[in-house]
Design a protein that fits this description.
Helix content: 10-25%
Structural class: mainly beta
Order of helices and strands: HEHHEEEEEEEEE
Strand content: over 45%
Radius of gyration: 17 Å
């Protein structure tokens, strides 16, 4: 009974969320199968777990300690609610971007948590909200920039213990019309 009371108080303080689906990514013992997307076993790769056809609201992605290679531009999450990407410990949970145009992007997401991960070598081309008036032909195209972590029109964002390392010629974090704590 005491344990339940402690958990209840903890949830009141930090706003606990339950998710309909929990996907665990373990780069050592996982398997990229439909069973890992169902939460029956860990997935092996971020590319498989983050594939857009697997995106659903109310999903938590748990990255076990280690290095998780992101080698495809699959880290784009759009038009979802209640998404959480958490590592075991930021010092020991790394997303290592190796492919072109790889990074994390969150667009029109509500209730988003990103915590306890290090992004390494991530850089993806994203649009800013500023117009490129130097483009004489159209005069209305949006400027593009290289960014490791991109938020656009997100609400109730929690970002804690997130580190961005070795991402040359890249803006670390870009947030447009985003709020949270």
């Amino acid at each position: 009974m005491l344990r339940l009371a402690i958990v209840s108080v903890f949830c009141l303080i930090v706003s606990c969320v339950s998710y309909d689906r929990v996907i665990i990514i373990d780069s050592l013992v996982g398997h990229d199968t439909p069973n890992c997307i169902k939460g029956e076993e860990p997935c092996l790769t971020l590319a498989f777990a983050f594939a857009s056809d697997h995106h659903k609201s109310s999903t938590q992605y748990i990255l076990n300690e280690g290095t998780h290679v992101l080698n495809e531009p699959t880290g784009i999450f759009e038009n979802l609610n209640s998404i959480s990407i958490v590592g075991q410990r930021a010092a020991n949970t790394t997303v290592y971007c190796t492919g072109e145009n790889t990074g994390l992007a969150f667009i029109h997401i509500s209730d988003l948590t990103l915590s306890n991960i290090s992004l390494y070598n991530c850089s993806a081309l994203r649009y800013s909200t500023s117009r490129d008036y130097g483009d004489i032909r159209s005069g209305k195209s949006l400027l593009q920039l290289q960014v490791a972590l991109y938020y656009n029109n997100c609400a109730n964002v929690i970002m804690e213990f997130v580190y961005i390392n070795h991402s040359p010629n890249t803006t670390g974090v870009v947030m447009y019309n985003t709020n949270g704590r």
